Amino acid sequence: MNGDKNNASGAKPAATEAMNDLRLGAARKRLAESSGQEDAIEGLREIVANFLGSEEMGLFRFDRRTETFQVFWSFGIDLEQYDLLHALGKAGLQRVMQGECHVEFGARDRSGVMGKAQAFVPISVADQTIAILAILRLLPQKLAFDKSDMELFKLLSDEAAKPLFGPTGHATRGTEGPGMRA
């Protein structure tokens, strides 16, 4: 009987791991097979919506000239008045600029209200953050980010820059700038 329990409990993590591998493979393939910047942006939206459970996201491009982040693209939310630096905080910004994800899991405040989970994923080229993907709210059926989401954040951080901005981190088309919205 005890052996059956071990087999049953061992099967579930293996199935979960296999499902996660499929999810990571599908995301990697979608990004790699993008036919241009607009298709890569659509692929990013699909990955975040289908695999991470959010339909409110934005991509902020780092402007080295002004040393600020500018809204490059958004979906499901108007980010014109969004203050990325305020949302991240100084420590969060430092982490993202060093290539680490900054994830807020949605803690309860003093009144017991659950805060929203959000994630800030650096998009990097040659170990330099050139953009930040902000995932701003989860769908109601998804309560929090989990370990497999962290693996997907890492994949996006490492592999999204090339299809989005070209191998050197520069936009591949003339669609760069705050006017791009879905």
Question: What report would you give on this structure?
Answer:
- It is a single chain.
- By secondary structure, the chain is an alpha+beta fold.
- The chain has one domain: 2-Layer Sandwich (Beta-Lactamase), CATH 3.30.450.40.
- It has helices spanning 2-32, 37-52, 84-97, 147-159, 161-165, and strands at 56-63, 68-75, 102-104, 118-125, 128-137.
- The protein has a 5-stranded antiparallel β-sheet, sandwiched between helices.
- β1 (56-63) and β2 (68-75) form a beta hairpin.
- α1 packs antiparallel against α2 and α1 (2-32) packs parallel to α4 (147-159).
- Mean pLDDT is 83; it is low at 1-10 and 172-182.
Write the layout of secondary structure elements.
Layout: H1 2-32, H2 37-52, E1 56-63, E2 68-75, H3 84-97, E3 102-104, E4 118-125, E5 128-137, H4 147-159, H5 161-165
Antiparallel strand pairs: 1-2, 1-5, 3-4, 4-5
Helix pairs in contact: 1-2, 1-4
Top keywords for this entry?
disordered C terminus; Beta-Lactamase; 5 helices; 43% helix; alpha+beta
Brief description of this entry?
The chain has 182 residues and is α+β, with helices and mostly antiparallel strands. The protein is built from 5 helices and 5 strands, in the order ααββαβββαα.
Proportion of residues in β-strands? 15-25%
Q: What sort of overall outline do the alpha carbons produce when their principal axes are compared? A: globular
Count structural domains: 1
Q: Enumerate the spans where pLDDT stays under 50 for 5 or more consecutive residues.
A: 1-10, 172-182
The counted number of beta strands is 5
- The CATH H-level homologous superfamily: GAF domain
Radius of gyration: 18 Å
Helix content: 40-55%
What fold name stands as the CATH topology?
Answer: Beta-Lactamase
